[in-house]
């Protein structure tokens, strides 16, 4: 199994790398087919998802599929927000870019300041902590960052950018591609149990370890295959929606890259089918 997982991780790394290489010209500072701020911010989000994808694959290579699942949850949310940011007219994309990159961080800064102030009130010696002091804002700075908005308005914007709200909006879209995002909700929710280490999250791992060896091996390989497939699918989604936002047809390049890795994806599918045959 070790050799299989290493091979999958390497091939998936090449796959997402090829997608990145093709997208790079559209993310370059010299590209003028998108508003500079939208291009810059979407690029940072793309790169963040790409780096997290690499981290997930490193964990898969080491046989740590549960931890890879936690990172995949972050990628799910990142890709969803990436697609949300790049849909709509150029004006709508710019407005969402400012919400994501400017307004929401400003609101978050005021919340951090309030938390630090409360912490200092409870633990006075912590006031010597210079990094925490950097987070403190004056009343004037807080007012400037809030820019005349009330608590309800700020809460509504935060909710607008939540994963659940975005996929709910996608589910109402005329685009089948956007409506399909609702399928990510299950994996996102299950990974939440792992992040919070609640009874379900810890119990899932315990239950798997209690299975007979044959079942354990089959489900581990199937789980890893699905996670690797997800990482590749998310890279493809980034390519599709970036090219669409740039008025380019993503189908030819996605088809071309996919054909080069057809054997690889067949192997992933067979691993998952093997798990199903053993388990069900």
Per-chain topology:
Elements: H1 2-27, H2 36-61, H3 65-86, H4 90-122, H5 130-133, H6 139-146, H7 151-160, H8 163-171, H9 176-179, H10 184-196, H11 199-209, H12 213-245, H13 251-260, H14 262-279
Would you give an account of this structure?
It contains 14 helices and no strands. The chain has a domain at 2-91 and 176-279. Helix 1 (2-27) packs parallel to helix 12 (213-245), helix 1 (2-27) runs antiparallel to helix 13 (251-260) and helix 3 packs parallel to helix 12 (213-245). The chain is mainly alpha-helical. The protein starts with a helix and ends with a helix.
Brief characterization of the structure:
The protein has 280 residues and is an all-alpha fold. Helix content is 81%, strand content 0%. It has a domain at 2-91 and 176-279.
């Amino acid at each position: 199994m070790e050799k299989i997982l290493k091979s999958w991780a390497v091939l998936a790394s090449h796959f997402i790398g090829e997608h990145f290489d093709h997208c790079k010209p559209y993310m370059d500072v010299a590209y003028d087919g998108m508003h500079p701020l939208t291009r810059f911010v979407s690029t940072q989000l793309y790169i963040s998802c790409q780096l997290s994808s690499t981290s997930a694959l490193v964990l898969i290579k080491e046989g740590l599929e549960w931890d890879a699942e936690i990172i995949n949850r972050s990628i799910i949310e990142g890709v969803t927000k990436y697609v949300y940011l790049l849909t709509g007219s150029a004006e709508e994309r710019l407005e969402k870019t400012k919400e994501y990159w400017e307004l929401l961080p400003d609101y978050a800064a005021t919340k951090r300041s309030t938390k630090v102030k409360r912490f200092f009130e409870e633990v006075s010696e912590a006031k010597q902590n210079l990094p925490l002091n950097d987070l403190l804002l004056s009343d004037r700075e807080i007012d400037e960052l809030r820019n005349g908005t009330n608590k309800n308005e700020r809460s509504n914007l935060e909710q607008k950018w939540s994963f659940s709200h975005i996929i709910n909006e996608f589910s109402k879209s005329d685009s089948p591609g956007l409506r399909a995002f609702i399928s990510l909700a299950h994996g996102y929710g299950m990974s939440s149990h792992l992040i919070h280490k609640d009874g379900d999250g810890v119990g899932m791992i315990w239950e798997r370890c209690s299975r007979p060896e044959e079942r354990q091996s089959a489900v581990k390989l199937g789980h890893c295959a699905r996670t690797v497939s997800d990482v590749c699918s998310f890279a493809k989604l980034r390519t599709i929606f970036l090219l669409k936002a740039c008025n380019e047809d993503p189908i030819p390049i996605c088809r071309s890259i996919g054909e080069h890795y057809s054997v690889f994806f067949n192997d992933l599918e067979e691993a998952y089918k093997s798990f199903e045959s053993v388990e069900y």
